[in-house]
Write a structure and sequence with these properties.
Helix content: over 70%
Shape: globular
Strand content: under 5%
């Protein structure tokens, strides 16, 4: 899974990593995207701003990647 590779070496807790993984999967389903690395980068970008809720992360990433 691309998000795990991007998170390697980060100082995130296991709980934070889990939130990112949940958000990543939810955003992929919502957007029906194949480009997993794009979604992974967006989840990490938003999470680095302090968003800690997986559903909020997924929603924000989805809106930024597909603003319809």
């Amino acid at each position: 899974m691309p998000i795990n590779r991007l998170l390697e070496g980060s100082d995130l807790t296991p709980e934070q990593r889990h939130v990112y993984e949940l958000a990543f999967n939810a955003a992929l389903r919502k957007l029906d995207l194949v480009d997993r690395s794009l979604v992974a980068r967006k989840i990490i970008e938003i999470g680095s701003r302090g968003v800690t809720n997986a559903l909020a992360l997924a929603e924000m990433a989805s809106k930024q990647l597909d603003p319809r």
